[in-house]
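Forum > Structural Biology > Help requests

Title: Can anyone predict the 3D structure of Heme chaperone HemW?

Hi all, first post here. I have the sequence for Heme chaperone HemW but no way to get a structure on my laptop. I'd be grateful if someone could post the structure tokens.
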Amino acid sequence: MDTGSRQENASKQESEAFGVYVHWPFCLSKCPYCDFNSHVRHAAIDEVRFASAFAREIETTAQRSPGREVTSIFLGGGTPSLMQPATVGAVLDAIGKHWKVANDVEVTLEANPTSVEATRFAGYRAAGVNRVSLGVQALDDTSLKALGRMHSAREALDAVAIARRSFDRYSFDLIYARPDQTPAMWADELRLAIDEAAEHLSLYQLTIEEGTPFFGLHQAGKLKTPDEAVARALYDVTQETCDKLGLPAYEISNHARRGAECRHNLVYWRGEEYAGIGPGAHGRLDIDGIRHATATEKRPEAWVMRVESSGHGVVTDDLLNSEERADEFLLMGLRLAEGIDPERYTALSGRPLDPKRIALLREEGAITVDATGRLRVTSSGFPVLDAVVADLAA
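Reply #1:
Sure, ran it for you. Structure tokens for Heme chaperone HemW below:
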């Protein structure tokens, strides 16, 4: 079977979910741990121009992927809550103009506590946003200062309260394995967070990314993060506390009450299609049975000029072969508590996973295989997930 036919057949096994990711690249300040495509501008942003460019790139992308029904939209960044509600409305209107949108579409907007106002949230809701994700990151002022955040713990909790009044669905992020953090401190903070979180928390272990200020400080010995044993204890506390209080992990870093999972992020982890719109956005589109991995120009002003001249800001459009697509499916799908169907891996790659490797990983307690054949990583396997994926993909 040729690559195109195999990928087309595998595509038929997927659900009909289709996501649109829109990247707003601007922030009030750059956090010292952040390696996302975010930029600080001291002059006013021309939102009308950016909204027009978003609409143009949406139109061009929809022409490449017609007939889709959008099931989720995610406005990420950067700090999308720095956008005027009218700008958000223009983006959502453009999506609705060029694709069909599901009646129950999930529309998430990321917000920072420093940019949360009740009136602005009411405007986002009127524009069509029905879920917000708040970048809280910590619930104590010392940690927030160390992380370079511009809000206090009190401001964070006030922002969560505004989100609770404004939207039926909301989530917030916390970072753990911070300098000087102990498992007992984290357990207390986590219990407070779960009291405030209606349905969803994203809990990320602090990683020191090359190119960030934290990387230089860490290399110089001026920033000390928990050692491997403490980091593992912090991870275990995360799982135990969230399980006990009704927010089990449905993905390695995301916890939700049953039915409250972020549908847009599930699009990524289940290997489904999504369009990437805006500076530095990535996408995965199936065109003529072949998976395209797209990426746009990262520099905001350069992206705008590209879109205005050619209708899109895409600078990378790679065709994934069957092996690459299968490996990506494995890498993303095994992050989920639900695991993967090995038959879909076989359909994508043209070869099954090695039964000997599966048997060995089962013996080691890193994975389980249920009666239907579904393969899942165990709680003891998740901390070494990269090694599990590499072993299965070999």
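DSSP finds 15 helices and 16 strands in the chain. Residues 18-268 form a domain with the TIM Barrel fold (CATH 3.20.20.70).
Shout if anything looks off.
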